[in-house]
Design goal:
Length: 120
């Protein structure tokens, strides 16, 4: 009986779908925010993105890896990140806009933990 239980457990381990073994988080549903409802600093960053710069920080425009997998999965290099100034912060702060293809922008107020799709 014990042998049959062991065999059954082994078979179940190999028969589970691959997703059950994955430790990667899939993209969740992303909320939407109107561009007019963004903080003033985020609207200024979005305007700079549309104009192609100038940008306030050297790292603006670097590839965003989406390692948190909160945004829809895309090939590396698809997303780029831009800093949204945070009043009172002595560094870049936590706020970002992530750009995908033209017209695809996401705002994060909490350093990539959550995102809102920007509706322009």
């Amino acid at each position: 009986m014990l042998r049959m239980l062991q065999l059954w457990l082994i078979l179940m381990a190999f028969c589970l779908p691959a997703e059950a073994h994955s430790h990667h988080r899939e993209a969740a549903e992303v909320a939407v925010i109107a561009a007019a409802d963004l903080p003033a600093e985020a609207r200024a960053t979005l305007h700079a993105i549309h104009q192609g710069g100038p940008f306030a920080y050297d790292r603006d425009g670097v590839v965003f890896g989406n390692y948190e997998r909160v945004l829809p999965r895309q090939a590396r290099g698809y997303y780029h990140e831009y800093t949204v100034k945070t009043p009172g912060a002595r560094n870049r702060g936590a706020r970002r806009i992530i750009a995908g293809r033209p017209g695809e922008y996401y705002y994060s107020a909490d350093h990539y933990q959550s995102f809102n799709r920007i509706r322009e």
